[in-house]
């Protein structure tokens, strides 16, 4: 009996470990469909590495999948030292999966000949795919990884770097395909970002989190170092036990929530965690005080 329980527990643990990788692969497949069904046929270079690959594909005739992989190589080399092995491992898997599925689905014919429909569906499908990948704690490489690297070396914010990167790609698209095509691509980019936001954390951009755990010091330390967010230890006393135990208070951006959950789970599976929407966050790392 005990042996069966042990095997069942190991099976559940293995499934829990493999689930994020399966989700990253699924999200990469959905993103690849958006690339081949909408972005490439309609010249929608909507920012990021994929946007650059779309431009180079139409200008030079190079295949998209190898371009996506090749353009991510220097980012990997830089990120290996700056961001750490754990993050780069999942990012590498996400990029490899995306490249594989782009190549696999490249012969599927477009579903529409209407550029407006393609623009809307490209944003929706790509947003779903990227949202699944990010929710699993992964990444498809590109500008978000590049932005994290630059942010570590400068005082610039990740969101600002991604915005400037995407604007440069849209400008290149305007030169390559014309202003009108770049405007369509901008709509796709906007829709993608909104759907990713919705999948990750609904309509809110930040979460205020309170964590009750015996491992409060370790959790707070990892929030400071791995998420680069501030954390406050609030003095608290259990109403039932009367035991004093600090409560960790922090505010994180929407894309950091999956990683925060993982940190708390890794440190203390019995931790008590409360998360609620922060309608507005003013201060360092978020919106500046007026």
UniProtKB/TrEMBL annotation:
Q: Per the record's keyword annotation, is Mitochondrion included, yes or no?
A: no
List locations, semicolon-separated.
Cell membrane
Checking PANTHER family in the record gives: UPF0750 MEMBRANE PROTEIN YITT, UPF0750 MEMBRANE PROTEIN YITT-RELATED
Q: Keywords in UniProt for this one?
A: Cell membrane, Membrane, Transmembrane, Transmembrane helix
Name the InterPro entries on file: DUF2179, N-reg_PII/ATP_PRibTrfase_C, UPF0750_membrane, YitT
Name assigned to this protein: YitT family protein
Q: How does the protein's chain sit in the membrane according to the entry?
A: Multi-pass membrane protein
Q: Which Pfam families match?
A: DUF2179 (PF10035), YitT_membrane (PF02588)
Highest taxon, organism lineage: Bacteria
Q: Where is the DUF2179 domain?
A: 229-283
């Amino acid at each position: 009996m005990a042996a069966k329980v042990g095997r069942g527990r190991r099976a559940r643990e293995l499934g829990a470990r493999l689930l994020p990788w399966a989700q990253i692969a699924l999200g990469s497949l959905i993103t690849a469909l958006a690339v081949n069904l909408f972005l490439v046929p309609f010249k929608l270079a909507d920012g990021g590495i994929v946007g650059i690959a779309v431009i180079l594909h139409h200008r030079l005739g190079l295949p998209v999948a190898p371009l996506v992989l090749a353009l991510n190589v220097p980012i990997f080399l830089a990120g290996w030292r700056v961001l750490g092995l754990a993050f780069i491992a999942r990012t590498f898997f996400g990029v490899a999966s995306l490249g594989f599925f782009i190549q696999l689905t490249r012969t599927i014919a477009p579903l529409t000949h209407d550029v407006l429909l393609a623009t809307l569906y490209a944003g929706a499908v790509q947003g779903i795919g990227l949202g699944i990948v990010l929710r699993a704690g992964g990444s498809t490489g590109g500008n978000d990884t590049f932005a994290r690297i630059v942010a570590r070396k400068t005082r610039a914010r990740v969101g600002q770097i991604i915005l400037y990167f995407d604007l440069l790609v849209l400008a290149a698209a305007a030169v390559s395909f014309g202003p009108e095509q770049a405007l369509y691509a901008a709509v796709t980019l906007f829709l993608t970002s909104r759907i990713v936001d919705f999948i990750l954390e609904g309509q809110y951009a930040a979460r205020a989190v309170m964590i009750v755990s015996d491992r409060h010091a370790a959790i707070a330390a990892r929030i400071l170092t791995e998420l680069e967010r501030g954390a406050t230890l609030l003095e608290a006393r259990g109403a039932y036990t009367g035991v004093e135990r600090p409560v960790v208070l922090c505010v994180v951006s929407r894309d950091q929530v999956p990683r925060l959950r993982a940190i708390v789970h890794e440190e203390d599976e019995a931790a008590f965690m409360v998360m609620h929407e922060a309608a507005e966050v003013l201060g360092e790392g978020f919106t500046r005080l007026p």
